[in-house]
């Protein structure tokens, strides 16, 4: 017969099982069993009788030598057919596993592997019409419950490259601790990851993927820097990491200086691998350049390598363009954040050089601490109050006042410390 494709040959009921796809034929998918001399057709040998055209993205496998599974892509859907052998009798179960308006026919690239009573299906799915949006997913079928898990992301790709052609072994030994998965990323890169199997006693030693596209830029409000990066996986590019450690410093940041950098108290919870992460650093000194880096952790405590380091100047409201209008008087601005815990930024403007004293008072008018007491040049200035007094002890929650004092003016602003 013309235009056929054959699959691999797992064993069904102890006999080699051959799947045949008839292209451009109403026969569609069929299977045949080896009887010692030739391949024979059983009464249930017609699996899916439909004209597939030239679409030939399919995979098939057998669980426990008794239950056959066929998965294939047809247009914008991925189909699953399965049945118990029943001595070659009975009808096939049929379900649609996935639908995607951006994934068509051959682009599904399904492949399966068997571990005990479970069937693992790996496949591609595109998030948009762009080739680079092709991502690797997997689902697990339990022969015991006869149901699939929800799709899990394996990889969203590296450096925006397309992911195609996932592959694995047809069957994994019962004592294996993981399911291997390979795929092609871009034109020249072959990637590898593994699905860890529960109950095998394996210790997770695989660190999360590292972030190589961290981007930092001035935020939308004073003292802010906006961050953006792509979420890595729990094991390399696979899965979902557990936590981020984001740190920043006014000095160049690297592994040697990482422990001295300021740690962000409220980093976002990692999303699935490939998602776009956004976070804003606040409470920074406007006009100051900060260097930012991120490490990624999984549930086992494995840490990724340090991300690329990116620097940005914290946003300030004064600007430096020719059209900027600067104050003509001494100005004490409202601290930010306000309310705050544990620290806040006190910013002020000097139209000319002057002796300056910036202090903090409590609601009773008592001096809590002096932050600045020196001669300063004209321009914007800022200082951070960390909520401590002269002795370095933490003060109680409540209302406090920042004070700007020069030989020409004196100003107060109310601040609220919350704990």
Distance between the termini: 79 Å
Uncertain stretches = 319-324
**Shape verdict:** elongated
Q: Compute the number of helices.
A: 0
Roughly what percent helix?
A: under 10%
Question: How would a crystallographer describe the biggest sheet?
Answer: 6 strands, antiparallel
Radius of gyration: 32 Å
Number of strands: 32
Chain-averaged pLDDT? 89
Class from helix and strand fractions: mainly beta
What portion of the residues fall into strands of 2 or more residues?
Answer: over 45%
Give descriptors for this structure.
single chain; 419 residues; mainly beta; 6-stranded antiparallel β-sheet; 0% helix
Question: Could you characterize what this model shows?
Answer:
It contains no helices and 32 strands. The protein is mostly beta strands. The strands form eight sheets. Strands 1, 2, 3, 4, 5 and 6 form a six-stranded antiparallel beta sheet that branches. Strands 11, 12, 13, 14 and 15 form a five-stranded antiparallel beta sheet that branches. The chain starts with a strand and ends with a strand.
Short structural description:
With 419 residues, this protein is an all-beta fold. 0% of the residues lie in helices and 46% in strands.
Blueprint of the fold:
Blueprint: E1 4-6, E2 11-12, E3 15-22, E4 29-34, E5 39-40, E6 46-48, E7 58-63, E8 67-74, E9 77-84, E10 93-99, E11 111-115, E12 118-126, E13 134-142, E14 147-148, E15 152-155, E16 163-167, E17 178-185, E18 189-196, E19 215-218, E20 225-230, E21 243-249, E22 262-263, E23 276-281, E24 289-297, E25 310-313, E26 331-332, E27 344-350, E28 354-362, E29 367-376, E30 379-385, E31 398-405, E32 410-417
Antiparallel strand pairs: 1-3, 2-3, 3-4, 4-5, 4-6, 7-8, 8-9, 9-10, 11-12, 12-13, 13-14, 13-15, 16-17, 17-18, 19-20, 20-23, 21-22, 21-24, 24-25, 26-27, 27-30, 28-29, 28-31, 31-32
